[in-house]
Fold this sequence. Notes:
Layout: E1 5-7, E2 18-20, H1 21-35, E3 40-41, H2 42-53, H3 61-74, E4 78-80, E5 87-90
Helix pairs in contact: 1-2, 1-3
Amino acid sequence: MAEAKILTKHPLGKSGKNIDKQKYETVKKALLSALQKKELTHTDLFTQLNKSLKGKFTGNISWYGETVKLDLEARKIIQRSSEKPPKYRSK
């Protein structure tokens, strides 16, 4: 049986990526849990993501993290602030 896939979205309307649904859910959970308590810059968010997934995830954590983060922005689940540097937060 083929692995379930999910087609991600992009906040700027660019084409999304077709990625493994299980990996998507794993990264999504880690991103949302990192953003649960406070707003984070991109660097802080990815530091947290790498910490929480290290050793539990096969694949490039940063690549999947970026892909899922963009998808969550496009779906309005997380928000990027307009300040510099931008901060992310859960909606």
